[in-house]
Amino acid sequence: SQTIHQWPATLVQPVGSPLSLECTVEGTSNPNLYWYRQAAGRGLQLLFYSVGIGQISSEVPQNLSASRPQDRQFILSSKKLLLSDSGFYLCAWSVGVYSNQPQHFGDGTRLSIL
Amino acid sequence: RKEVEQDPGPFNVPEGATVAFNCTYSNSASQSFFWYRQDCRKEPKLLMSVYSSGNEDGRFTAQLNRASQYISLLIRDSKLSDSATYLCVVNPAGTYKYIFGTGTRLKVLA
Prior knowledge:
Oligomer: heterodimer
Number of strands of chain A: 11
Number of helices of chain A: 0
Structural class of chain A: mainly beta
Helix content of chain B: under 10%
Low-confidence stretches of chain A: none
Mean pLDDT of chain A: 93
Shape of chain B: globular
Strand content of chain B: over 45%
Order of helices and strands of chain A: EEEEEEEEEEE
Order of helices and strands of chain B: EEEEEEEEEEE
Radius of gyration of chain A: 14 Å
Strand content of chain A: over 45%
Low-confidence stretches of chain B: none
Largest sheet of chain A: 7 strands, mixed
């Protein structure tokens, strides 16, 4: 069966520091991969998605970036964090297009910027 | 107009009650529909997919009305453990994106 791993679970970082969050999927090939952010009490905001190695689509211009160095690995990065980057970061995967398949989420990373 | 709209609630209902949520979507080309459940400070979890003919899973029933562009979720015999935020999700045809509503909060009271 497919599983998704996301780490770390919680992170406290100072303003201006770098960020690297990692997500890996097991049990499937060529998944579609997604990064979302959820601010406290708010809905999910799509940040990036990828449909293949090295392919990244950005939804929101900001100081974050994403990379997909391997088929089942998705990384969210920042060179300098802002206070507004605080939130709950979620990685998700799905398969195909026109497939009527849902997304599945990792456990999330709660990021606090001080 | 938002692509996916939900009443934020909260819906406060007693145990054993039946409660229904609606969700409207703006893109008539939308292809796939889902309901997710999100507990406080947790990731969203798939509750059920929504099929054109409607579908049922235990106490939960989902319906799709393409003409009026809405989906619904009916929960029968509510349990305390049903307390959560319910997210409506739409996947427009030909895209990899999933559009999330902001969710409807349900509180089931003892």
